[in-house]
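re: ur question from yesterday

yeah so i grabbed the chain u mentioned. its 220 aa long if i counted rite. heres the sequnce exactly as i have it in my notes:
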Amino acid sequence: MDIFSLTPEEFVETVGTGTIVHNSGDLFGDHLRAVQNVLRDWNLGKDLELAGLFHSIYGTEGFQDFQLSLDRREDVKRLIGERAEFCAYCNCVMDRATLDATLSAPAGEHKIKARPDVGGHEIALTDEQLQDLITVHLADWLEQVEREAAKVNERHGWLKEGDAWGYRRSAYKQMADFLGGPAQEAYKAVFAREPQSTRHISQIYTPKLQAPITPKIYIQ
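ran it thru and got these structure tokens back, copy pasting raw so excuse formatting
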């Protein structure tokens, strides 16, 4: 199959995202399209919409039940463009603690690190690239947090219903405040629906994932 004859949406479906259940409980492919739609609603342009569609295509620190091989990066760049692919790549490989740390760095000095399992290398970000990354990263969480909070997820340390609301709470608020505009308004709308009973919960780290519950799809 000539993948370049496919639309990005068709490519995502073709590689099998519709056969894997995402952390949020939806099919992985449905979650990818939903994040794309969040970004479309924020009216931030096609590049960020495509970054949203591919935001976890290589697997992430919090979801590794599906991974398109990083050897396919050039194919993905040709399909969605360098800006969108770089944003998705960073969202996939980063150690999220390093993203949270760089939010407070001075302009022009932003950097994240890849997780050890994907090289552990440092990735310098321009101010614009940081804005792209936190926009997509925040959209991803806002799209799913309510579903995540409705259930237990022991792999993420959420041992009772509602625990997910506290996941990296201060970092997500900092991202929303940094971005302002539609992203901040969406953040306020989602977190206004959080029950009072969980608003004290704060989980500042991402637990190391154990073996996936569902079989991993690793696509070369």
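noticed a couple things. The CA atoms of residues 19 and 27 lie 7 Å apart. also Strands lie at 66-68, 110-113, 122-125, 217-219.
anyway ttyl
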